[in-house]
Amino acid sequence: MEAPLQSQPSMFRTPTIQVRLKTRTETPISSTPILVPTDVTRYSLSQILNHLLENPTPIPYSFLINSVYLPSTLDDYITSNSVSREEILEIEYVRSVLPPKWQARWTQDDWVGGVSVRETGVLTGGYDGVVRVWDWSGNVVSKGKSGEGALRPVKCVKWTDDDGFVSGGMDGSVRIWEYEDGAGISLVLEGKGHEASVDSVDYRDGKVVSASADGTLRLWSVDPSDAESAETPTPKKKRRTDSSHPVKVPSRSCCC
């Protein structure tokens, strides 16, 4: 008589582990651990979670273990981190965020050195020495020339709170511009002092901070009256040699 078929040996069964799913941003579930196979992937774990939450429409979730996103399977994490299969694995779930998708492509004549955006438009600086204002349809509505020669590239730009912006150049200068819709761009102030290119600028409350490849940060006032007083100091006060004051530029329209 033939021997009866034996049940499948446990060595061929899919290993399992207890996990506790928790969240800080989504709808929570019971803290009771559940048993899942270790070959579960993010997608299949997301299916399990949607079932537990009884979501009418499936929601994609991502999972973190000790602040690290789950790799291809739980087994990969368990093996890589020498996790005991006897312990309860704490897993945090968050809603998956799809990567951004580009919607349009705008082209300049040369390398783009800097960009700054606001509701009314996009500001760019280029290695061709030109600053440009674009509308959200990708049209250049105004542009101004920052400089000439080998050191003309604009490395960075930043909108200010009012109708204007600041730029930093490879020539070490910080320039303050005015922009008026329909009237164009005009250069108002120009600050010199850095010994290398200005690679980053930021603006707040009437002040500009510039960061340069010369290893220094400089604080600038964008008030033209400050620039005028800095150019003509009174004899009673010794002029500080470590202050940074932009020089007022005669009003003119900048165009290319």
Description:
The protein is mainly beta and 256 residues long. The protein folds into two domains: 15-95, Phosphatidylinositol 3-kinase Catalytic Subunit, Chain A, domain 1 (Ubiquitin-like (UB roll), Roll), CATH 3.10.20.90; 112-248, Methylamine Dehydrogenase, Chain H, CATH 2.130.10. The protein contains three helices and 17 strands. It has helices spanning 42-53, 74-80, 224-231, and strands at 16-22, 34-37, 61-65, 68-69, 89-95, 112-118, 121-126, 130-134, 140-145, 154-159, 164-169, 174-180, 184-191, 198-204, 207-212, 217-221, 247-248. The strands form four sheets. A five-stranded mixed beta sheet has the order 2-1-5-3-4, with helices on one face. A hairpin with a 4-residue loop joins strand 15 (207-212) and strand 16. The protein is elongated. The N and C termini lie far apart (99 Å). The model is unreliable at 1-12 and 230-243 (pLDDT under 50).
